[in-house]
């Protein structure tokens, strides 16, 4: 099964790194959509089929936490898993994000294997052991 992914980060360099990591992880990703902030991400989500969202926390206009909140309140988007990809490492913050609806957390700097593990855990993609 191939996946449609949305990468949300205000840095085009980080978006490119996430895309490269997804490719290096050997995942069957059919389409990668990009957005520079949460508002752009919502527009993409309303017009495109997306299996999973990888979103940064700190972005202008609308950050990752606000994006998660908006998606949780939308009947069409509430089931799309959101994975936060951020350099914030505070355990309390990560717990809050998961409580609000984020399904997983990948810390920057990241490795391709982390994307394979998260996709395996959330969507059954890839192979090998996944942990959460």
From TrEMBL:
Keyword Phosphoprotein: yes
Phosphoprotein keyword on record: yes
Residues where 4-aspartylphosphate is found: 56
Keywords: Phosphoprotein
Pfam families attached to this UniProt entry: Response_reg (PF00072)
InterPro entries: Bact_response_regulator, CheY-like_superfamily, Sig_transdc_resp-reg_receiver
Superkingdom field: Bacteria
Response regulatory domain sequence ranges: 4-123
Protein name: Response regulator
Gene: cheY64H-1
């Amino acid at each position: 099964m191939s996946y449609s992914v949305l990468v949300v980060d205000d840095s085009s360099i980080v978006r490119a790194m996430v895309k490269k990591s997804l490719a290096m992880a050997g995942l069957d990703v059919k389409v990668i959509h990009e957005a520079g902030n949460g508002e752009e991400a919502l527009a993409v989500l309303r017009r495109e089929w997306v299996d999973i969202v990888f979103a940064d926390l700190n972005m202008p206009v609308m950050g990752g936490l606000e994006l998660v909140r908006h998606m949780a309140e939308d009947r069409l988007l509430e089931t799309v898993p959101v994975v936060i990809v951020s350099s914030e490492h505070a355990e309390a913050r990560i717990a809050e994000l998961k409580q609000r609806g984020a399904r997983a957390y990948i810390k920057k700097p990241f490795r391709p294997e982390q994307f394979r593990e998260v996709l395996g855990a959330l969507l059954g993609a890839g192979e090998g052991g996944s942990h959460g």
